Known about the structure:
It is built from nine helices and twelve strands. It has 291 residues and is of the alpha+beta class. The chain has a six-stranded antiparallel β-sheet with strand order 1-2-3-4-6-5, with helices on one face.
Amino acid sequence: MTHVCQNKPGLAGSLRQALITKGVIDRDARWYRMHGGRSNLVWRLVGRGAPLICKLSVADTATPMFPNHPMAERAALHGLANSGLVPDDVVFVDTPDGPCVIYRACAGAIWRRDTAAVGRILARLHAHAAPQELRMVSVSGAAILDHGDEMLEGLADDFDLPAVRPAAPHIPPGPDVFLHGDPVPGNIIMGADGPVLIDWQCPARGDAVHDLALFLSPAMQVLGRGAPLSPHERAAFLRAYGNPDVAERFLACEAALAWRMAAYCVWRIARGHDDYAPALAAELHHLKNMR
């Protein structure tokens, strides 16, 4: 959903002028503020030619689960140019207001169904060589649970997460692959030629299990489309991903991953994000069903 940008008009005006001066956009382009993203400011630009998306990176919006690295986004999008996995005609501009990425708007709708299509596009992404400058993520059992402990440190124990903390799983490490880092429903656009991945502010290198866990997370599905995936949808995703070894390792450490996601929801709730309450409930329900 969009509306004409009225919030922070000074910012929109200064950014617009910077982009016009650099010859990136037309002076007559109309700006519409887009909502849905939780880290950066995004506008849809409509004028001559195809509509564009303009995303301005906002400092100090990273979270323990989702960093906000504009230079990593730049590296990821450059590495995937012309792959069909990312938007077309990507341009990066440094402005007085911060780093900005502009690309042609993807024709289509935000993903809501067809988990097999997402399984296939993540498999394609994970087959690409990852830029070496991307951060590394680990899915070792100890690292997952330690990360959850760090997020809960100093928070009120209103949800008694320590009582459902699973034992650390012991799984063999998988190969490092090119990770999106945030493949949740709002970051997948379903077009005529299949899905396209957007919002690349936290790409990474590491085990494919990391991306699978984020997409399959009940919390992320509740936040993105209002309901967790059904068992049938989960199974269709894993089949389409097409790597039984990755699926087996994901299932072996899923309880630890779900517990960490629950800890993240608590971290967000403690900072006033009440929309994470139903997401937390969904993640805990799923975790308890695995016990």
